[in-house]
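#random but structural
TW: two for the price of one
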Amino acid sequence: MLSLLGMVLLALGGIGAVAVVHVGCVTIEFLADWFRSQGERLYSDPDLRAVTVAESIRDGEVSYIQGLFDTSREQFVEGRRIEAKQAEKRVRSAHAHHRVAVWG
């Protein structure tokens, strides 16, 4: 059986079209605000996990996928791509050892 991290990475291939958000700096507060806006869904469905995936860090820019991952269906049910010039240290630290970070 795949770990949650493995399932999330496999599901990236099928995520399809997602909204793209451009910001100057990805902060914990920016990520938390979006997760809070999904709060009712997160709290009512025990299979949902709040995740971010470090997609790329190149040429001084960063890209993350932020979304709700359904562990029973092994797919993203909501998500967005965040492109930025930089990410604050707390966000970078969350992805220091693995591309996937599970929040809360």
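TW: number two ↓
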Amino acid sequence: MKALFRLALAAGVLPLAGCGSSAPVPGPVTSDEAQALDQAAEMLDSRPSDVPSDAATP
């Protein structure tokens, strides 16, 4: 009975082993690629938008 409990406990805990990874890079992307993507996103965010905001539309 103890063996079954230990097996069930291990089966419940093992999937959590991958949670909380210290690597901030999502998916199959190198850290250099992630940095380049972050820089591109910052550049796009800093550009003025030609599209009117929702508040400006009736």
